[in-house]
Amino acid sequence: MNSVAVGISVADFVLAVAFGVTGVLGLMRRLPRNRFVGIRTPVTLRSDETFAVAHVVAGPGLVGGAVILALAGVIGIGSAGGVGLAFALVGLVAALVILGAASSFGLRAAARVPDWDQSDSCGTGGGCGSCALSGACAAPGASSTSVS
């Protein structure tokens, strides 16, 4: 058994667990917005909703990449010599490509979430509910435009 193949297979297993847990939590919308785990870009960290949308979209790819990593790890440890090393490396590269594509899809989905600010649309875009409430969201002392 090749020690390099075992080392890469162990790395495959560790990455499989990390990406699998992230994918499942993202699919279930249970992954809180944070700066350590998940797809962390300025777009996804913009709000809780954008972070959740990115991980719901990327979740199936993250879980799929985790399955590929786990299989590559099993075959890498179970096969003798260069075959085990080849499976461990090919599985690692294939999973990283899938994980990158899934993250890209999640990032695109997060970018499509509107950046809605209640103070910008108060009374005119439906932020407060109706024209009768047009001044209700305005900051104290700010002038509000009334619609007749």
List keywords for this structure.
transmembrane helix; SdpI/YhfL protein family protein; single chain; transmembrane
Quickly give the structural class.
Answer: mainly alpha
Low-confidence stretches: none
Query: What share of residues is helical?
Result: 55-70%
Biggest beta sheet summary: none
Strand content: under 5%
Distance between the first and last residues' Cα: 82 Å
Q: Return Rg in Å.
A: 23 Å
Mean pLDDT: 86
Quaternary organization = single chain
Instruction: Compute the number of strand runs.
Output: 0
List the domain count as a whole number.
2
Count, helices: 3
Q: State the order of secondary-structure elements, H for helix, E for strand.
A: HHH
Globally, the shape reads elongated
Question: Could you describe the 3D structure shown?
Answer:
It is a single chain. This protein is mainly alpha-helical. The chain folds into 2 domains: 3-111, no CATH class; 120-148, no CATH class. The chain has helices at 3-27, 48-78, 81-111. The chain is elongated, with a radius of gyration of 23 Å.
Element layout with pairings:
Blueprint lengths: L2 H25 L20 H31 L2 H31 L37
Helix pairs in contact: 1-2, 1-3, 2-3
Brief summary of the model shown:
This protein is mainly alpha-helical and 148 residues long. Helices cover 59% and strands 0% of the residues.
